[in-house]
Design goal:
Elements: E1 2-4, H1 6-15, E2 26-29, H2 35-45, E3 49-51, H3 52-56, E4 59-62, E5 65-69, E6 77-85, H4 89-98, E7 106-114, E8 124-128, E9 133-135, E10 148-150, H5 169-177, E11 188-196, H6 200-209, E12 214-220, H7 225-231, H8 234-243, E13 249-252, H9 255-265, E14 269-271, E15 276-278, H10 281-290, H11 298-310
Parallel strand pairs: 1-9, 2-3, 2-6, 6-7, 7-8, 10-11, 10-13, 11-12, 13-14
Antiparallel strand pairs: 4-5, 14-15
Helix pairs in contact: 1-2, 5-6, 8-9
Length: 311
């Protein structure tokens, strides 16, 4: 699995910004994932930008104004931007929708990330990233979330405050009315939480009210808050479910717990505290050796490992 967050996106654009000619008049993003890189490119190139639908209707976004009609004579060279290309169907559909404008505009196409073999579908690309892959800006709608585990507090909803976490009436009110945080658009495989089993009814009610789809809810079978705090086994509890099934990702709010879950399972953990993917050295080496992750680093990483073993 390959992962890129918004910081990675920004850095690769800045690193390879020179590949984009400066004579483009307008940057056009393909909704919705293409709007973020289009906005960044427009910012760094100091060009106006818009989305495909607005472009077809003669609207652009300019500094100091939400939108503005443009004269077709004002813009001749257009750069159409998407975040990534996998099958290529989205970019081909976009090209088809714009083909009638070729007489009036010179249109080029750009993707930040492409999979190997799809480079020629665009005029410009920034990085080759093979499948399977996740991006921070669309991970909550990824079709493979049924192969993922989610924490609740700090992920699906905010964490309770110390005052709310009283194992009584205030906590019950929190369980039923907690503000939602990151609600996925796709079904979750299993929700794994350190909430106590005795609060299953309230938790299920909140999940239903907030339209969270999932296959299974795993809770902690302990009598009360004091027993949970004494056991202090949050990461181990979550890792047990993650490790015992063919899940490929765990989404956890606490960085310390994310690191521990990764250490136990040797599987990737996405931390919503900073939206970084947690891989420890053992996990990275395991996946490099198997060829499952980071194949382009494999031979170098194995050389480093062998040298370390000889010390």
């Amino acid at each position: 699995m390959y992962y890129r967050n918004i910081s990675d996106l920004n850095q690769i654009i800045l690193k390879r910004l020179s590949i984009i000619p400066r004579d483009f008049d307008l940057i056009v993003g393909i909704p919705r994932s293409g709007m973020l890189p289009a906005n960044l490119l427009a910012l760094y190139l100091n060009k106006p930008y818009t989305d495909i639908h607005s472009f077809l209707n003669g609207h652009i976004y300019k500094a100091g104004a939400r939108s503005q009609f443009f004269d077709i004579k004002d813009f001749k060279k257009i750069l159409v931007v998407d975040d990534s290309i996998a099958s290529g169907s989205a970019i081909e559909k976009c090209k088809e929708s714009l083909k009638d404008l070729s007489a009036n505009f010179s249109i080029s196409y750009c993707a930040i990330y492409v999979i190997p073999g799809k480079e020629k579908l665009v005029d410009y690309y920034f990085e080759i990233v093979p499948l399977p892959r996740y991006f921070q800006w669309n991970i909550l709608n990824h079709t493979t979330l049924e192969k993922a585990c989610f924490d609740i507090d700090g992920v699906l909803c905010v964490d309770p405050t110390e005052e709310q976490n009283d194992d009584g009436k205030k906590y019950m009110d929190f369980l039923l009315n907690a503000p939602p945080l990151f609600i996925p658009g796709s079904k979750i495989g299993t929700i794994v939480t350190s909430r106590l089993e005795k609060y299953r009814k309230e938790t299920e009610k909140w999940l239903e009210d907030n339209h969270v789809k999932y296959n299974q809810l795993v809770m902690l079978d302990l009598p009360n808050k004091e027993a949970r705090q004494k056991a202090n086994g949050h990461a181990e509890h979550k890792a047990k479910t993650y490790q015992s099934n063919s899940y490929v990702l765990f989404i956890e709010s606490s960085k310390s717990q994310a690191i521990e879950i990764n250490r136990i399972t040797k599987k990737p953990v996405l931390c919503t505290e900073n939206f970084e993917m947690i891989f420890d050295s053992e996990s990275v080496m395991y996946n490099i050796k198997s060829g499952k992750y980071f194949p382009f680093l494999r031979k170098y990483a194995l050389k480093i490992r062998n040298k370390i073993r000889k010390l």
